[in-house]
Amino acid sequence: MNLNAACFPLLCTLVTALLSLALLNHAKAQRQVHFAGALVYLMIILALNWHIHTSGFLVLHFGSHPSGIAISFVIDYFSALMLLVTALTAFAVVLYSIVDFSIAGKRIFYPAFWFMMTGVTGAFSTGDLFNLYVWFEVMIIASFILMALSRDQDRFHGTMQYMALNLLATVVMLMAIGFLYGISGTLQMANLAIWVHHSSETSALFLVILALLMASFAMKSALFPYYFWLPASYHLTSVSAAGIFAGLLTKVGIYALIRTATLLSEPNSSLMSVLLVLSCITMFSGVFGAMADYHIRRIFSCHIISQVGYMTLGLAMGTTLALSAAVFYIVHHILVKTNLFLISGLITRYNGQVDLQKMGDFFLKKPVVVVLFLIPALSLAGFPPLSGFWAKYLILEAAFSAGFWISALVAVLVGFFTLYSMIKIWRYTFLKPTESHMNVIGRSERVFLYTPIIVLSLLTVTIGLYPQFLYSLSKQAAEALMNPGCYFQAMQGEIPCLS
Amino acid sequence: MSLIAMMVGILSAIALYLLMSPQLGRWLYGFILLSSAVNISILLAGRVYLSQPAFVGGQLDMKFLGNPLPQALVLTAIVISFSLTAFVFIVLRILHKHQASMCDDRPEGTTFVNRSSHES
Hints:
The complex is a heterodimer. Chain A is built from 20 helices and two strands. By secondary structure, chain A is mostly helical.
C-alpha cells in the first residue's frame, strides 16, 4: 500500500457525496450509492488499520512538497482507531437511513450526510491545524443542512442555537490559529509541537492562545459552560442525522482537544487543571438535565454531555493510563450513543410518540426492542459485563492511581444518576400500560431498522466480554500520543517506528 | 502597526457587544464584524503589514521578504466565513418563513422569532 492511502477514506466519502448529489433525481440509485459508499468506506478503513498495525504510520505530504510546507495527512494509531469506529457507525446509520421515516422524500439528506462524513474524515486524518479548521467548516456546513431538514414545528429556535454556537466556535478557533501562526511561524502540528518543546519563550502569550484554541474545541464538544446548544437542537433533527451527530460531531471536538493537548501542552499544565474542573461540572450538568427531561431523544442528548465529561476527565488527568481510558471511552461511547438514538427512533416509529409519558407497553408487546434497548442503556450506565463497565472502570482506576479522589467520586455518582434516568425510560416506555396501539412495520423495513441496532449491540457486548482487544488498541494509541517521537519521525519522512 | 492592532481590538469589542444582543439581526452583524476582525488579525499576526514584496526592487534581505502564507490563510478564511454567513442567512430565512406559516401563536421564550416576524 503506498502513502497515498492516507487520503483514500477522504476520497471515498467525497466521491460518494458528489455521486449522490448528481443522482438527486434518482431516488433508488441514490440510495444504492449511499449504501455502496458506506461499504467501500468500511473496507478502505479496515485495510488502512491493517496497514497501520503491520507497517507503521501513514504520512502523505500533498504535492510532494517537503514537510512543513505541504499540507500533510497523518494516520497514526489514534486516527486509525477513530476512523474505524466512524466507519462502523456510519455503516449502521446508513443501513437505518434507507428506511428512515423522518427523512423520507428529503433526498438532499444523502449528499449532506456524505459531505459531513468528508469533514469528519478530514478532521481525523489531517496533520495541519489550518486544514483542521477547514474540515471543521465542511463538517458544520453539512450538519446545518441535516439540522434544517427536520419536520419538527419548533425547530427554528434549536437550529438557531446550534448554528450560532458552532459559528462562534469556528471563529474563535480561526483567531487562535492566526495568533499561533504569528508567534510560531508554522501551522503543521508536528512542527508546532517541536517549536513548543524547543523554544524558551513558551510564555504567558502562548498559554493564552492555547487556551483560546482549546476553548473553541470545548465549545464544539459541548463542555460546560457551552453545552446548552446540544440538548436544544439534537432532538429536532431526523433520527439518522441525530444518530450520526450524537456519535461523531462532539467526538471530533474531543479528538481535536486530545490531539492539541498532547502535542502542544504539558500534562501538568495549568490548563489541564481547569479542564479537570470543567469535566466534573460537565458530567453533573449533563446528567441532571437527563434526569429532569421527558423527551426521549433529549434525554439521550443530555447523556452525551455527561459522557463527554468522562472523556475530557481522562485527558485532564494526564497519565498514559487515563488517556487510554479516555480513548477506550470514546470508542465505547460512539457505538452506544448511536445505537441509543437509533433505538429511540425505532420506539418512536412503533408508537408515534417522543414523550416518555405518552409511551408504554413495550415490555409485553415488543420484547425484542426491550432487550435491544437494555444492552446500550446498561452499557451507558456502566453495568458489567458490557463495554461501559470497562470504560468507567478504566477511568476510575486512572483517577485512583493518580490520586484524583474527588473526580473519581463524581464519576461514580454520575454513573448512578445515569442509571436513574435509564430506569425512568424503562418505567415509562416499557412497563407502563397505555391505550395507544402499536404501529405495524413491514418485514423489509424491519430488516433495515433492526440490523444496525443488532450489529451495534453485538459490538458493545463483544467489547464487554473481550475488553482486552480494544484496551490494547487504545493503550497503543495513548502511548503514541504521550510520546510523539514516532509521529515526528514519520512526519520528517524517516521510517516510522513500530511499537 | 499598533494603531491597526488597537483598531482590531475596538472592532472585536463592538462585535462582542452586538453578539450579546437577543435580536437576530444585531447578532448576525456582530458575527460578520467579528469574523472580519479575525481576518485582519490573521494578516497582522503574519506580519504582512511590515513586509516587502518578494524579489522586487532588488532588496533580498530575508527578514523583510513578503510571506505568502498569511495571505493564503486569510483568503481561505474570508471565502469560508463569507459563504458560511450567506448560507446561514438563507437557512434561517427558509426556516423562519416555514415556521411563520405553520403556527401563529408561538410559545414563550422565542424572542428571535417574535421580533423578526414583526418586521416582515
